[in-house]
Write a structure and sequence with these properties.
Blueprint: H1 2-28, H2 45-51, H3 54-62, H4 64-67, H5 85-98
Helix pairs in contact: 1-5, 2-5, 3-5
Bound molecules: heme C (HEC).
The site of heme C has 26 residues, from helix 1, helix 2 and helix 3.
Pfam family, one: Cytochrom_C
InterPro entries: Cyt_c-like_dom, Cyt_c-like_dom_sf, Cytochrome_c550/c551-like
Keywords: Electron transport, Heme, Iron, Metal-binding, Transport
């Protein structure tokens, strides 16, 4: 029973992060990134979720200008946004949750 409640608390906390991350997305990213393959200036987050690890996504958001080359871009049009470390964590959690199956899981 104790384990059940511990798991419940962990699941709830994670879910709260994802929900909060969705708000961060709507307010700061939706102008340039879609989540329904509608397109935009930056890549759709379903693709990002599928092709990049959560930690790398977080790194990109904190510093696009130093990360764009390692993601295969030749130029950088994404600005560095004034987000708190928690907001970056939450929005990365949200992006990561969009696609449960990842590219690097394939053999
Ligand atoms: C002004 C438009 C703009 C805004 C706002 C913006 N981005 Fe971007 N983003 C881009 C563009 C354009 C790229 C393509 C690479 C580049 O120019 O840096 C990109 C690339 C990315 C990438 C790398 C994706 C990949 O797989 O290649 C991530 C991750 C990302 N953005 C996350 C975010 C998040 C999270 C937010 C909101 C907190 C955000 N972006 C807000 C324009 C934007």
């Amino acid at each position: 029973m104790k384990l059940f409640f511990t798991l419940l608390i962990i699941t709830n906390a994670l879910y709260a992060n994802i929900e909060n991350g969705k708000d961060v997305y709507i307010q700061n990213c939706a102008n340039c990134h879609s989540v329904n393959m509608r397109g935009g200036m930056g890549p759709d987050f379903n693709i990002v979720s599928y092709s990049h690890k959560k930690a790398d996504i977080a790194k990109y958001i904190s510093s696009p200008s130093t990360m764009f080359r390692s993601f295969g871009y030749t130029s950088n049009a994404m600005p560095e946004l004034p987000l708190s470390p928690q907001e970056i964590k939450d929005v990365s959690e949200y992006i990561d949750s969009l696609q449960p199956f990842k590219k690097w899981m394939k053999k």
